[in-house]
Amino acid sequence: AFSSKGYNIKRVQYPWKTMMLKYSWEFLKQEMVTHFEAQPQRDSTVHIRGELWPRFTMKEELLEQDRLPALIGGWGPSRRVVFSKAEMERIAFDEPEAHLSHLFKGRLFRVYVGNWVEECVVDDISVHPVERELYFIRFRRHVPGKVTALSIPVSISGLWGCPGYRAGGHVDLAMPTIKCECVGEKIPPPFVIDVTNLKLESPYSKITISDMKNQLPEDGLTRFSRDYTGEEEVVMCYDPKSIPETPLPPEWQDPNFNHRGGRYHLTYTGFWPKQTTRA
Fold this sequence. Notes:
extended, 15% helix, four-stranded mixed β-sheet
């Protein structure tokens, strides 16, 4: 019987095939560059339609009707508007298991109500501390030529190619948002930091605010907040085992249990006598 064991197929190296393999990468690379250059520019602007706040209507009544009340102020008369609660919550909670998005307060909103258009940013928001539910939004107008201060979110890319991460280090995004000052017509999109050159060093390697100046728009109409010195650490890479644990001081108290009247009691439910911690 014929056995194919040890039988090797010898393929013919045609000259035309060798030349195609040699020069194919240049054509493929140019095609990829053309594709990405044809993509639209990154823009985080939200276009949304609203309605005028009905007269003699309380905020609670609007919330019962699944409508979200809002106020637009700054650089002009205040205007009260109403949005679709479900639509605005889809924008605010853009991740399945996360709470309020950092991008919600770091992007431009173009609001269409009737015959007028308002360009504004989120100044303040009332939201449930646990549930994904909005109660009220306060917008601030964005006027080109006037300084608009807001926090723009930051994300990292190239984590799987980061030398420090592959060496067993921990890559930490120390600043999820960066305060910026904008005077142009648009608000820049979120910053994306490439960590493919971040190595594991002692005590740690870092990417600072000064290293991110190339992330700013080329028109020069956006800058980092003047409160920064440029040495603030945005991304760090370190070995978790090299950091010793520091115990908390005996007098330390969790600030999450503080309120206007004092401190919350974990075992007190409103019935007397109040339970206290015994020494």
